Amino acid sequence: MKKIIASPHAPKAVGPYSQAVETAGVLYVSGQLPIDAETGRMAEGIEAQTRQSLTNLGHIL
């Protein structure tokens, strides 16, 4: 059975797809942008962008 995963703490999907889908014991996560879900602002600089993308991923997991 397929389970759609959506977190209000990560940016919403921009297109017609889910933040993540779990099926047959495997989790598929969409690409994460370095955007803060609360402010809608993109982090500046590679370190801040990497940190924000991983934070968003953590919210989805």
From TrEMBL:
UniProt GO MF annotations: deaminase activity
GO CC terms of this entry: cytosol
Gene3D superfamilies attached to this UniProt entry: RutC-like (3.30.1330.40)
A Pfam family annotated for this UniProt entry: Ribonuc_L-PSP
Alphabetical list of CDD domains matching this protein: YjgF_YER057c_UK114_family (cd00448)
Protein name: Endoribonuclease L-PSP
Naturally occurring in which organism (per UniProt): human gut metagenome
